[in-house]
Amino acid sequence: MNDIIVVDDFITKDYADHIEQIVNEKDFPLHFRKGIVTNEDEHEGNVDGFIHMLYEVQKPVSPRFPLIYPMVLSITEATGIKWNVLERLRFNFMLGNKQSKLLHHAPHTDNYTPHWSAIYYVHDCDGDTFFFDQKLTEFTEEESYRITNENKWTIKQRVSPKKGRLVMFDGVRFHASSFTTTNPFRCVLNMNFS
How far apart are CA 88 and CA 107, in angstroms? Predict the structure, then answer.
């Protein structure tokens, strides 16, 4: 079984439009996060961004959680991947960067235990998600920092942001976002399951 599953038109067009409209509202709360990718501040690919946390520590933390949860419940049917516990659910926003020469941001996993991750693309833009051949199970957390700093990664697959697209993948697979160079920002919904 392929551990990177891409589902286009994952939700209805009206639902996708509504989510995009919500995150574009002027009063949609965002919180700045230095080093949105990893705790390794000195890594060139560890970019800053904004988040809106919907769910963490096994409880909703945003009044917008009920809007998104029906999408989460549809993942098993769409992907065939069964999950038991929703661990985290958040919107990630990264500002566009027309001058960036980085191919991708710092490769990472969202946590260090076996899990599944999913990314829902809120809008069309460039700024692909990169998936690498390397998996966390192949080396220790400390070794992953060394490999990240040496930037020795083999790209397995790239997935382009497309409104309504979902990509589900084995959470121990290293992945990385990249800057949009054509839009003001890149917005995704990041989900983690155990």
Answer: 19
- The candidate with the shortest Cα–Cα distance to 158, out of 184, 125, 132, 187, is 132
In 3D space, the residue among 142, 131, 6, 138 whose CA is nearest the CA of residue 75 turns out to be 6
Cβ(23)–Cβ(189) below 8 Å: no
> Which tokens is 139 given?
């080396």
- The reply to whether the predicted model has a pTM over 0.70 is yes
- Residue pLDDT, tens place only, 43-69: 566 788 999 999 999 999 999 999 999
* CATH topology classification for 4-169+189-193: Jelly Rolls (2.60.120)
129-167 burial, b at 16+ Cβ within 10 Å, e below that, comes to bbbbebbbeeeeeeebbebbeeeebeebbebebebbbbb
pLDDT at 138: 80
Distances (CA, A) of 16 to 20, 28, 99, 185: 6, 16, 30, 17
Other residues' Cβ atoms within 10 Å of the Cβ of residue 26 = 4
**The sheet that has 173-176: what strands, in order across it?**
155-159, 129-135, 173-176
**Type of residue found at 118:** A
Question: Could you tell me where the beta strands, DSSP code E, fall in 106-163?
Answer: 116-121, 129-135, 155-159
